[in-house]
Amino acid sequence: MTAESSPSENITTKDVRVPPPISGTYPVPESDIAARVQALESILLEKGLLSSDAVDKVVEAYEKDIGPMLGAKVVAKAWTDSAFRARLLENAVEACKELGIGGSQGEHLIAVENTKNVHNVIVCTLCSCYPWTVLGLPPNWYKYPQYRSRIVIEPRKTLKEDFGLDISEEKEIRVWDSSSELRYFVVPERPTGTENFTEQELVSIITREAMIGVAEVKSP
Amino acid sequence: MTGQIARSAGRQDDLLHLDITGPAAVPRKNGELVFETPWESRAFGIAVALSKSGAFEWEEFRKVLIENVKETEKDEYAKTHKWNYYAIWEKSLERLLLVKGIISEHELERGVIQTETDWNHKKDSHNHSHN
Q1: What range does the domain containing B19 cover?
Q2: Are B32 and B81 members of one domain?
Q3: Which of A8, A61, A93, B93 is the least crowded, having the fewest Cβ atoms under 10 Å away?
Q4: Is A5 on the interface with B (CB under 8 A)?
């Protein structure tokens, strides 16, 4: 319950009655849930509380635009502009604003940089806090309890076994635990062989996984 | 899901105030798709759209979601099986709408039955036309 007890949250949060917990949820046929989603949408449409178009727009925006593309733009800019890189590491919220990327939910964003001595990886041990503004929606595995507990306990082993990422023993691994107020994302190392790449070409090789810290960026 | 992406590519003008540069093809190269099934994306979109239109505060939804995720993790079945995050998302949305009185239990159950009837009907008539 750490998220609920944080004082800064109480400022913006109205009290809400938390409904009774789910019971007997598993296993539920997926078609049953799909029907409930459809029913909710139909009822809300009928009541005029929602338009199908509004839902489409949200989904499209998160899938396509607020997705990892934005984070990739930030990283590519940091790779090609050292002054921007310094500003990004100093204050990611302000640096992202320079690129027109702003958090609608007001969480604080922190960029952590991979170097030849340090590898960073992000997690949310409490739930699934994620740097949405730069990375879009989290992949499903990011939300699984297996990842959330294991990456903290044995990061090197987890990266190797679950993601095929071999981090040498000499390298320090830092695991950053996100919260509702503080969200991290990783600035990966720029791969060799990309010296002549344009910013746009760099964007195309930067993956979501690299910005979570479970992959490296590879030169194509 | 490919259809959705293709559709969105043709609707640049409709998009939320985001200044995106670069070709539309790049996001598809950039990792896997975000939603595994269409209903997951609908469940997500409904909740975000409702919070934007002021039906509830995002924070209210988030609290219910966290609570339900925690409850699910205590569930014996969920401990040993992969659980679907958006199933919990849907349940949370449902509960919040009921608690806030935005929809009623009766409306919801009627809606579910209606949806299932529609789907079965479509399935039946589809099968029929191929017989």
Answers
A1: 2-100
A2: yes
A3: A8
A4: no
**In the prediction, which pLDDT does A27 show?**
65
- Give the closest-approach CA distance of A19 to chain B in angstroms: 6
At residue A212's C-alpha, the angle toward residues A206 and A218, to 5°, is 35
Tell whether B106 lies on the interface with A, counting CB pairs under 8 A: no
B24 shares its domain with B76: yes
Chain A: residue nearest B47 by CA?
Answer: A55
CA distance A71 to chain B (A): 11
Contacts of A114 (CB under 8 A, 6+ apart): A120, A186, A187, A188, A189, A213
Tally of domains in chain B: 2
Tell me, yes or no, whether B25 and B66 share the same domain. Answer: yes
Q: Residue A189: which H helix or E strand, with range?
A: none
B90 and B116 in a single domain? The answer is no
B19 touches chain A (CB under 8 A): yes
Nearest CA in chain A to B40: A34
pLDDT for the residue numbered A141? 86
**B110 and B88 inside one domain:** no
Determine, for residues B30 and A41 on separate chains, whether the beta-carbon distance falls below 8 Å. Answer: no
- Residue A132 sits at the vertex; the CA angle it makes with A123 and A51, to the nearest 5 degrees, is 135
CATH of A67-212, one of 3.40.50.740, 3.40.50.2300, 3.90.330.10, 3.90.650.10: 3.90.330.10
Most B CBs within 10 A among A43, A133, A218, hence the mutation to make, goes to A43
B130 in the same domain as B76: no
Phi-psi region of B43 (alpha: psi -120 to 50; beta: other; left: phi over 0): alpha
Q: What is the pLDDT along chain A (220 residues), one digit of tens a residue?
A: 333 333 333 333 344 444 444 445 556 778 888 999 999 999 999 999 998 889 988 887 776 656 777 899 999 999 999 999 999 999 999 999 898 887 555 568 999 999 999 999 999 988 778 887 788 778 778 888 889 999 999 999 999 999 999 999 999 999 999 887 788 999 999 999 999 999 988 998 898 899 999 999 998 8
